[in-house]
UniProtKB/TrEMBL annotation:
Residues 689-774 form the Mannosidase Ig/CBM-like domain. SUPFAM superfamilies: (Trans)glycosidases, beta-Galactosidase/glucuronidase domain, Galactose-binding domain-like. Residues 1-22 form the signal peptide. Transmembrane segments: none annotated. GO terms for biological process: polysaccharide catabolic process. PANTHER family: MANNOSYLGLYCOPROTEIN ENDO-BETA-MANNOSIDASE (PTHR43536). Residues 786-887 form the Exo-beta-D-glucosaminidase Ig-fold domain. Keywords: Carbohydrate metabolism, Glycosidase, Hydrolase, Polysaccharide degradation, Signal. This is Hydrolase-like protein. Residues 230-326 form the Glycoside hydrolase family 2 immunoglobulin-like beta-sandwich domain. It comes from Chaetomium thermophilum (strain DSM 1495 / CBS 144.50 / IMI 039719) (Thermochaetoides thermophila). Residues 59-174 form the Beta-mannosidase-like galactose-binding domain.
Amino acid sequence: MKTARSTALLLLLSQLFLHVDATLVSKAGQVAVIPTWDLQSTAVVGNDLGKLSRDRLDTESWYHAPVSKCTLIGCLIEAKVYNETELFFSDNLRKLDENKFLVPWIYRSEFTLQPTPGQHFFLQTNGISSRADIYLNGKKVANSSEQAGSYVGRRYDITDIVRTENVLAIKVYPTDYYRDLALGWVDWNPWPTDNGTGVWRDVEIKQTGPVVLDPLRVVPYLGAPLTLPVKVSLRARLHNLEDRAITIEAVAQVALESGGTKYTRRQLITIPPKSSLDIFFEEFIENPQIWWPRQWGDQPLYIANLTIQTIDGNISDHASATFGLRSVTRQLNAHNDTIFFVNNRPFQVIGAGYTPNMFLRFDPAKWETELRYALDLGLNTIRLEGKNEHPELYNIADRLGMMLLAGWECCDKWEAWDYNPDLAVSPTPVWTDEDYAIAHESMFHETLMMQAHPSVLGFLIGSDYWPDERATSLYLEAARKADFQLPVIGAASKRGFSMQTGPSGMRMDGPYDWVPPNYWTTPDTLGTAAGFASELSAGVGTPGSLSSLEQFLTADDMDDLWRQPNKSLFHMSRAGSPFDTREIYNAALWARWGAPTSLDDYLMKAQLMDYEATRAQFEAFRAHWGDGRVLAQGSKGPATGMIYWMLNNAWPGLHWSLWDYYMRPGGSYFGAKVAGREEHVAFSYATKDVWAMNRALEVPIGQEKRRIEVSVLGVDGKEMFKGTSVFTTKPNWSGRVESLREVLGKVNDTVFLRLILTDEKGKTLSRNIYWLAPEIDVLDWEQSDWYFTPVTKYADFTALNKLEPADITIDAVVDGDGVFVTVENHAMVPAFFIKFDLVDEHGRDVLPLTWDENYVTLWPKEKLTLRAGVVQGRKWEPVQLKAVGKNTEKTIRLKRK
Ligand SMILES: *[C@@H]1O[C@H](CO)[C@@H](O)[C@H](O)[C@H]1NC(C)=O
Ligand SMILES: *[C@@H]1O[C@H](CO)[C@@H](O)[C@H](O)[C@H]1NC(C)=O
Ligand SMILES: *[C@@H]1O[C@H](CO)[C@@H](O)[C@H](O)[C@H]1NC(C)=O
Ligand SMILES: *[C@@H]1O[C@H](CO)[C@@H](O)[C@H](O)[C@H]1NC(C)=O
Ligand SMILES: *[C@@H]1O[C@H](CO)[C@@H](O)[C@H](O)[C@H]1NC(C)=O
Ligand SMILES: *[C@@H]1O[C@H](CO)[C@@H](O)[C@H](O)[C@H]1NC(C)=O
Ligand SMILES: *[C@@H]1O[C@H](CO)[C@@H](O)[C@H](O)[C@H]1NC(C)=O
Ligand SMILES: *[C@@H]1O[C@H](CO)[C@@H](O)[C@H](O)[C@H]1NC(C)=O
Ligand SMILES: *[C@@H]1O[C@H](CO)[C@@H](O)[C@H](O)[C@H]1NC(C)=O
């Protein structure tokens, strides 16, 4: 009895609190998201949305997701039914029962409003995967023809339905990637068992007076020079909700987020009954603070506000937008390749392809870390291929200065054109009238959401295949309506184009699987780094350490990595794709480095392969920016852009990423990072040329002289060559400064090559070490496939397995948010490929963190100092430094300053 009574009391109390907490909006101009959901399968609670949304209901037995947005599996993780770590472990995901997700589910939420006469209420969606019926208080708000498409956001008038106590119920229908315009994964990873079905984006409730505003659009017009006042145009559509004319005062304000001059303008407008009109404001911003990509400058942001008041001073609605003053344009150059200009400066895109979490669980803190890593690597762009995520993603990119190339995803329903040969092998029906309408609405919603964000570089309306003329025209019309003033590009490939967009100027010729480092600089081949390459890589991204693998693999799974080189692995790409094994990669690893003798040996060899692969790709694209002499098939011009495939993984994967799922940077990260330095010196495996590159906006006059020191060592540590050369650097420049053909022609052994670039004062700008086999890998270009080019003879690095051990000493001091590591090689041979890791007192890796460089090679008697830094705002308690190289190993305790 007592227990029952206290439970009842608790229930009453929690309902009381619920009542108080759940008042979503109470004033005109306010918008609030539905903060939490109860959810249940229709197999359990039936299909009667009218009933489920009508009254009080005991939802005790439902699942409770304390978040505003989640896919079905995402919600069940939030509700602690599933544990993501466990789902991601080994092949546990395979064991989830798909049948559970083949029926519709109900999302339900109760909330309080304060409806009063003259006040209007709206329910706003931003995309539900992939169809939904929406009911409020027993009445239909929308059905599955109206709320269809993962990116379709609509505003529904619910004024006549709202009460003080409200019940919202949304029935979501199972998503089919072949039939729905949803978010699919193609071959990236296994598909989530629910196909991402659910309320994956926020649902909002908005309250207004008699006039409601559509989102505020902001269009800045930058002048040349950039110091001229900038005209900023503010635009919005107004709707009079009443059946009488209404006169309103619109007040627009613009100011720097950090303060300063506030520009205010007012307009009096009379809107006829039940009608809509557009409102425009123009403002000239004096002394404009220009927004730059991170590597070129600061990221000042402005805020624009628009407030609509009735003549008695009551606020009717309010809208605001954060924006930056920057311009983006895009042209086809003389070679028909896309080249972007940011603030009128030619902008070589050096980027990578992004994936969200497999269950679309967006974590702003993780995204911020990912951006900080990407900036640390020297990337300036991230491609979002149909994974356009949430406004928060753009806000964070705006603040950190990373450009985003948004767009629609490849394949599946999105590219169901009768001229797409993939259609023949997938059960995807071509578009119906309804699909065209959904695509149009999707484009409008997304471009409207993105339009003010300075981080957005453009929108690709096709990926592998270009949309047909009807779809292209709908996409372009939607973008125009949204005042999306950024480049809209027809596709990410050169397979064809719509007459309305013209050629994309982007190529998509692969590779996606392993190719040797000379692939990228062999002149006049498919591989030559040239033009704008929209997605490509040697496919690497092996997690860098045992501690990573242990988080998601069993001992047997780990054994498979080195004992079963050709096996299909669940943590590679989706089963059935060419990328579900590591066969091409492993064939190269075995041939080039010798069969691994243990898992540790495999991981070491894999990191050598990964570092070499990413460095070669990034260096080649940077080197070929501005080189008219490069000749390649398909694109004969300078390398104007490159999107590395890929940035990150949707879950703990074994390839296609620059760091592992737990944010451990490995070989692929540090190879790319070496190549990402502002000023850099690089070697071409194929041509034996030494290249220098500089992506600074300016080099002070009189400080352009540079020096390169070249040295070559045998595996025994004997110096085989030493020389220097001098040259003059320039901003926005790359060029060939020297040939080592003669020097290396005399060498028929495995050697190390060290390049050191210094400025006039002798300061090291870049130090770059290669290990070179007696002969380079031989590619069989004729046999190239869409995802790789086979190798007929592999380079032989096995001499490096027999390096003499190197004795090193290390000194490491913690100083604030950095650890300073001084390492010295006392041996007569190089200390080869030393990976430094920081661990805490529990032996766990300290993450996330950045290193100046890692996988470091030291010449005999060489001494280097490196810094590891904490990634902003994180707790930082390293106690130990572990150093593991190919011929050396050491663990030391850190000193405190
Ligand atoms: C999920 O499982 C892992 C490993 O079993 C555990 O460490 C973690 O705490 C669990 N997470 C939650 C939210 O319960
Ligand atoms: C949804 O509602 C619209 C308009 O009321 C109607 O034309 C359409 O047939 C409905 N669709 C479904 C699937 O019920
Ligand atoms: C997911 O999509 C695939 C292909 O479109 C389909 O075969 C499968 O049944 C879908 N699964 C669910 C749970 O809807
Ligand atoms: C915009 O509106 C917000 C909230 O009403 C206010 O805090 C801010 O000062 C306004 N900013 C400008 C530039 O008017
Ligand atoms: C303005 O607000 C007051 C107080 O809420 C209300 O009495 C009045 O009717 C409102 N005026 C209009 C034009 O809505
Ligand atoms: C670029 O495209 C145009 C029109 O499609 C064509 O006439 C021209 O020859 C092309 N230029 C090059 C360098 O391929
Ligand atoms: C794996 O496949 C390669 C060809 O790609 C073959 O040469 C090798 O023998 C196979 N290894 C095993 C262990 O099956
Ligand atoms: C920068 O380099 C690109 C590529 O070579 C070239 O097109 C552009 O004209 C250069 N711009 C300046 C300002 O030097
Ligand atoms: C390297 O070349 C030299 C002279 O050209 C020759 O004597 C030597 O045997 C060669 N070594 C190898 C490993 O082929």
